[in-house]
Amino acid sequence: MSQSGRSSFALSPSSPSRADTRVILVQIEKDSVAEQAGLQVEDVIVAINGTSIENTTHLRKYLYSEINMGDEVEFKVYRDGQPLQLRVIFE
What we know:
Blueprint: E1 9-13, E2 23-28, H1 33-37, E3 44-48, E4 51-52, H2 56-66, E5 72-79, E6 82-89
C-alpha cells in the first residue's frame, strides 16, 4: 500500500516449485506502508491478518476490501525460507 492507500509493491504469481509460496514481492516503493512494515523484495506473502493469501488477485482483493486506513495489519511472510510476522498501521 502507498501513502494514499493503494498498492506500493509489485507482485509475482507463486512458483509451483515452492510449496509454501503464495505471492512473491518483486518491488517495494520507497516510503510506502509496505516499506514501513518491513516487507522486502522476494518476501513471500502467505497470510494477512490470519487469512491465507492464495494468489495476487486474492491479495489485491483482500487489501482493497478488508483493510482501511488506520487499521493495524499483520503480514505472515517467508523470507529466505524462514517465517516472519510483520505488523504495520496503514496510514
